[in-house]
Amino acid sequence: MSHNTFGHLFRVTTFGESHGVALGCVVDGCPPGLALEAEDIQAELDRRKPGQSRFTTQRREPDQVKILSGVFSDDRTGGRQLTTGTPIALMIENTDQRSKDYSEIRDSYRPGHADFTYDAKYGIRDYRGGGRSSARETAARVAAGAVARKVIPGITIRAALVQMGPHAIDRANWDWEQVGQNPFFCPDAKAAALYETYLDAIRKDGSSVGAVIEVVAEGVPPGLGAPIYGKLDADLAAAMMSINAVKGVEIGDGFAAAALRGEDNADEMRAGNDGRPRFLANHAGGILGGISSGEPVVVRFAVKPTSSILTPRQSVNRDGAEIDLITKGRHDPCVGIRAVPVAEAMMACVLADHTLRHRGQNGERP
Amino acid sequence: MSHNTFGHLFRVTTFGESHGVALGCVVDGCPPGLALEAEDIQAELDRRKPGQSRFTTQRREPDQVKILSGVFSDDRTGGRQLTTGTPIALMIENTDQRSKDYSEIRDSYRPGHADFTYDAKYGIRDYRGGGRSSARETAARVAAGAVARKVIPGITIRAALVQMGPHAIDRANWDWEQVGQNPFFCPDAKAAALYETYLDAIRKDGSSVGAVIEVVAEGVPPGLGAPIYGKLDADLAAAMMSINAVKGVEIGDGFAAAALRGEDNADEMRAGNDGRPRFLANHAGGILGGISSGEPVVVRFAVKPTSSILTPRQSVNRDGAEIDLITKGRHDPCVGIRAVPVAEAMMACVLADHTLRHRGQNGERP
Amino acid sequence: MSHNTFGHLFRVTTFGESHGVALGCVVDGCPPGLALEAEDIQAELDRRKPGQSRFTTQRREPDQVKILSGVFSDDRTGGRQLTTGTPIALMIENTDQRSKDYSEIRDSYRPGHADFTYDAKYGIRDYRGGGRSSARETAARVAAGAVARKVIPGITIRAALVQMGPHAIDRANWDWEQVGQNPFFCPDAKAAALYETYLDAIRKDGSSVGAVIEVVAEGVPPGLGAPIYGKLDADLAAAMMSINAVKGVEIGDGFAAAALRGEDNADEMRAGNDGRPRFLANHAGGILGGISSGEPVVVRFAVKPTSSILTPRQSVNRDGAEIDLITKGRHDPCVGIRAVPVAEAMMACVLADHTLRHRGQNGERP
Amino acid sequence: MSHNTFGHLFRVTTFGESHGVALGCVVDGCPPGLALEAEDIQAELDRRKPGQSRFTTQRREPDQVKILSGVFSDDRTGGRQLTTGTPIALMIENTDQRSKDYSEIRDSYRPGHADFTYDAKYGIRDYRGGGRSSARETAARVAAGAVARKVIPGITIRAALVQMGPHAIDRANWDWEQVGQNPFFCPDAKAAALYETYLDAIRKDGSSVGAVIEVVAEGVPPGLGAPIYGKLDADLAAAMMSINAVKGVEIGDGFAAAALRGEDNADEMRAGNDGRPRFLANHAGGILGGISSGEPVVVRFAVKPTSSILTPRQSVNRDGAEIDLITKGRHDPCVGIRAVPVAEAMMACVLADHTLRHRGQNGERP
């Protein structure tokens, strides 16, 4: 991962600011011959789109994606639009930028935001809506992820919100069907009901709250991952940590593994039907030695509470003067919610990349 | 990060297997003119060296480093050996490889180890001592880290073990001086005393236990980090996750941030003496928007229990037959202990790399 | 250089096909605070634009560039638009695509073109106007080059056509002023007059002809270049060879150096005024050991004749049947002409990249 | 290509100075399961080894390679040593360094050498035998090339010297068998006889002379190459230009193509037996649009005369004082000779890399 590009053979370069002309990405290295329509990408973008419930920002962006390059159709493709192996550029024009008065955030450093650090690094900053540091950039990732999914049709990637504030779900209630049926991408219907009340109160307070997201990839063949410094878990950790507001990433049992003894942590094996081991547990989260084991790849990450809140906080401005600050504007009370489709996209990109890398160096996948 | 290389301008490529001829690394991109003696590197290696207490593997390796290239001294350097800007190759020859009977691990897949996944990926595996997947590779990282520290002389990097099994230290007792005075790199003298008894029991049981390590970098100037996909925290997450047996990484408050409300998580600011903000808290762990804030960079990571234990576990062998397995040999009952100097090395490498990157694209550091 | 991205700290990713929706690039790693208007880029694009004389393709493309991201202006910038250090996306929409009948090139492999090889590699091909393999892609390079020039304001980069077909210019007549005054970018007025007659005849024959271009960068400080595999000349060779139809690249005396004896090839030195050597000759073309010497960097490259000609050539079609083929459509009789501004752009990008890399690893430039 | 690493999936990182402890490389990304013995590598190194005739430097280096990692053998491999997919570190210890008086080159800038530019870049320089800028580094490339050849067993790579000073060979006399039978790697026996007399005279004069080398790869399948910025010819151009003293690179007809008309340059096609086109000519040198066509890949490059000569040349020293300088020591009168096996190695590495990249992104090779 480097600057605004990630991936090695399946490479994604994103661009764009929150209130600029457009944002988007170039997906380079996508194999040729895959069916890809704008609608495939739009469907994923719509899941992430703001303004779909009262629990996400009220900014209204259609987030309409345009494919600028890298696909082709003619009579020989039977009318289907196929990837050609050349770079796929995707663009989403910004429409609802509200060219309002930005003087407040122009001069002030909002606590928890990247205002001060961008100024410290670059000496200049597009402060409108957070500029490049806005979570709006993740729309480009979701678009890229939709392409990545085409590369790995045998792999199912799903994510869910498993904790909001201090309230974890009851894993016994886990039902993937539920994820699409509440505004929180929550797999536990009971927890979702609780979150509704809880987040309404947070929202009315002008406050915000953190969350934990879990991403699961099923159908990952054993053998993906490039030890030592392109380990599958290392790449996933970087991918998830690069999402806005993420402060922690764990694989399988994660931090809980530290408290275990070796006997309890070992994923025992029995003979499987297909000639490969059947694991009796998955503490490892599907990755051993940086390489996938064939078990579901399980990643969790923590999102901090949205930094924009209505309670006044102490801060300073660009001139070093001390100020008290509240952050007006349209914001997500729990930015973790919209991180759910973003997490799926990052998982898809990493797995697509490692699939191509494995095939390149080790021949076909097992 | 890609395959066996990490870093962008300060680049480290490691090589070597646990029981091969030698292991080491090539450090590419180190600035010229830095004083570097083998002793500087050796001092760091000695901290990681096995066999220093009864709590780490009894393998006896002197881990003597040789500098093969990239340094120079003559009368004009006043006898000091200086880096020249060319690649610095470092080699550590293996001596205590015990060419014993490996038939057991040759054919069996040890639970929790990378035996099956390396076979699945490569179809062949140097099983002696774990081969490339052995934590012995981290000696090369520690050597590279010693070079990295030369690049960032104003930054102090220290790590400590803050949890062993279920037993966290009492942070009120934190004393960096203690870290060098017990075999656990533990900053809490009282906890260290407890660990001694606790780990002795684990060791005698032939069992093992996990740990949590915390790494802190002080004196990091604001402005380091390359958004969006080379964020400082994303690179640190990948760096730590690439260490053997690590299952989780967090920055600042990490997973605890998920349970906070926005008011509690915001690091408020007041005017500082040096013209930059003084932060009243550091929930963010020194990183905002992927860029360092000037506050201490704080990273924690979880290490799973050593997978090699004496309790029989169910497994399969290469031929798919079911077996019961115990893992004999010399092992660390808590592999997290020796991860402490490794974590410092990875932090040093990442910060050296980002220092050079920032200087390249944004001019001098603030 | 890798896939559709080149550069290391100053990185350019291009996208787009000849007859697709749009083409463009993302310039990543551009330092912040540089004044950049669309007009700056447009001026360079206009030099490369087709249809400006009867000697280039009659395709009419306004080649209007849009800056989608990475720049910012407000009252604090005094109305000037500045780069922000974030990725600069540039887009040029295709307008004159002539959705005509492509059935001929759809099924046939035009000799000298990339039709067969793209099919062999990808199994699918956007054949309209050559798709991704069209020289139209170089518009994106020229746009990126305009940004690169901002990074290296002290360096003057100029290119010229120095040979058309078998007719080399007379170097004694070299006058940079002439380059802008004839449709060939030719620095020798007399040769330009000859080329007019010569190329008219070629054009009327439905034939085409090759060319040699020379690019010169003056004001390059000594010290740029990253030995061993990022040598300045190696990067320039790759950059120029990546331009469509280029078949050879040389630095300084180039191939002529093979015929020299050591005494004649050595660039002798005398004391310079500024404390650095003054070179008495520049056979080396400004690069020694892969590092700039402070002398002008001189690169020449050969462009093959345009492959699209009206004389029938033997070929085969996709089905393997033998055919005779002429290539109708709008084409440049000497594609080398429009390679002149492209060459300047590539030189600018490589020098900008190496300037940042040098600054990163070696501190400020000498 | 970046710093001291080249390649993307098949990656080579070299290290070492002319008179340092050792030089070598790490080959990363080599597929597993390939038979590789030190003898395979040694055989290639012996072809490049100095001191084999009076026409190359009299330095006596056994250039004995050691494989430090990345290979494995046991009873299951039938005693054969196989690659394991992990990094292959290769080391050649320096033995004949002659720790003589270097005071002359320590303080002086030898014309044509990298002395001044390394000082300008790094401010410090290992001047012993040229340090990192010595052609001794190419031993590491030859070693890596021997590994690369294992990756592409169906491809035959051969190089030859085709011009020495002003004397080109007669291509009608081309006989690959001759290449191993004269000290010049010359395929024309008659030219070789001439070179013997010619180079003897050059040598006795204390002078030197340039050369042109041609490298040919046969059996390259169509489809290798990664447009736009990882084109096969662009990568080859960088690879060859990175060899010491190279000043020009061309593919196929190269610079001669500039003088051709389109009709003469087009490589016509007829139906082939294997379903792919049979080309009637190969002006393109086996590459169209940056992708291999299945025809032999033909690359030529020019090597300047060795800069170390016994005729005094004007120069300056580190302090800026003007001096006259001759370069004593052991040198090659025609450094192009030993570039022949180096060129083969670079071709092998580039083709191995592109073979893996193609397989990764486009499935199996045609």
Describe this structure in words.
Chain A has one domain (5-362): Chorismate synthase, AroC fold (4-Layer Sandwich). Chain A is 25% helix and 20% strand. Chain A contains eight helices and 18 strands. Chain A has helices spanning 38-48, 103-107, 115-122, 138-151, 189-204, 232-241, 262-265, 339-362, and strands at 5-6, 11-15, 22-28, 65-67, 71-72, 82-83, 88-93, 156-164, 167-168, 211-218, 246-251, 269-270, 278-279, 287-288, 291-292, 297-303, 313-316, 322-325. In chain A, the strands form six sheets. A five-stranded antiparallel beta sheet of chain A has the order 1-2-3-7-4, covered by helices on one side. In chain A, a hairpin with a 5-residue loop joins strand 17 and strand 18. Chains in contact: A-B, A-C, A-D, B-C, B-D, C-D. The A-C interface holds A 3-5, 11, 13-17, 20-24, 26, 28-29, 32-33, 66-70, 72, 74, 76-77, 82, 84-89, 91, 106, 121-126, 131-132 and C 3-5, 11, 13-17, 20-24, 26, 28-29, 32-33, 66-70, 72, 74, 76-77, 82, 84-89, 91, 106, 121-126, 131-132. Chains A, B, C, D: Its cofactor is FMNH2.
